[in-house]
Amino acid sequence: MKKYGNVFIKNIYYMLSYAFTALHQENFEDIAKEEFDNIHNLFASILAKGIGLQLKQGLYREYQNFTEDLAVMRGKIDMPGTVRNKVEHKQVLTCEYDELTENNQLNQILKTTVMILLRHANVETTYKDELKKEMLFFSNVDTIEPSSIRWFDLRFHRNNNTYRMLIGLCQFILEGMLLSTDQGAYKLASYVDQQKMFQLYEKFILEYYSKKYPRLKASASQIPWALDDGFETMLPKMKSDITLSHEDKILIIDAKFWAQSTQSQYDKHTIHSGNLYQIFTYVKNKTASIGDKPYEVAGMLLYAKTDEMIQPDAGYRMSGNKISVKTLDLNSEFQVIANQLNAIVEEYFGVA
């Protein structure tokens, strides 16, 4: 799935728009109408639009502590530094002070991502020009080493919450597309790393059902092990990609963005055994956890469609539970994708 066509690239935008709610806003509606021939232009367009909107609100600034030798006092005096200056016959004070600055990590991440996009040959001049104009407002912001970013340590609050989508997109780009050259420089790959697409695919399906079907409960819930003695030391956590529940029915969906949706041996195609064991385990443990409650639990492997001739599409009854395998064609128009997702809910829950 590394060679992306125009339709698939447009669908990356739609998947991002569900993963990052801000992209649903009318400010980004022009992007949905554009035709992109590569993902670099798509990302550059979203960033250009998003950073432009952020500049209208003002760049986020935060207080940072500075220590500097000054001719006049500012903040508080740093005694060791001032004494050292005195010994060296320097007529300055070493001062510590706080200053409100836009040179913080959130803006540094934006600038670093934009500068890498600007160096990429696949980004069209139109988008580069927009980004260059916006970078004029980042003249006091440093670029940083992408590998130094601790994404999970970033904190969002009322004053910087508008950055959440932009930083999420930067993480998607830097973690999913960044390659290091032999010289230690960075460049972008022509494809998105499969692991990042896997995560986006899961997030998209979950958020689609959350927004489209508020009557359903959609979550990435943890499934308890059905233990006879309660001893669970060293057992791995079981967390579903998507769990849908409504009235007396539960559907556990395991989303799979794999290069091959089937395994083959001696020209015989079968469902990936590990995936089937996994969803079966989820379903049986979930069934056991609800006890005598009148719930019907089913499971589904939902693969992103590949270029293979044979695509899995089957339903089975296993130990009293329904297990099905389907594919989602991400290379079709988004309405077709939506119809496929809707059909799953309508078939299993009878909810339109």
From TrEMBL:
Cite the EC number: 3.1.21.-
Keywords, in A-Z order: Endonuclease, Hydrolase, Nuclease
Alphabetized InterPro entries for the sequence: McrC, McrC_bac
Signal peptide region:
none
Is Plastid there in the keyword field?
no
Q: Cross-referenced Pfam families, in alphabetical order?
A: McrBC
What's a single GO MF annotation on this record?
endonuclease activity
Name of the protein in its database record: 5-methylcytosine-specific restriction endonuclease system specificity protein McrC
Q: Which taxonomic lineage does the organism of this UniProt entry have?
A: Bacteria, Pseudomonadati, Spirochaetota, Spirochaetia, Spirochaetales
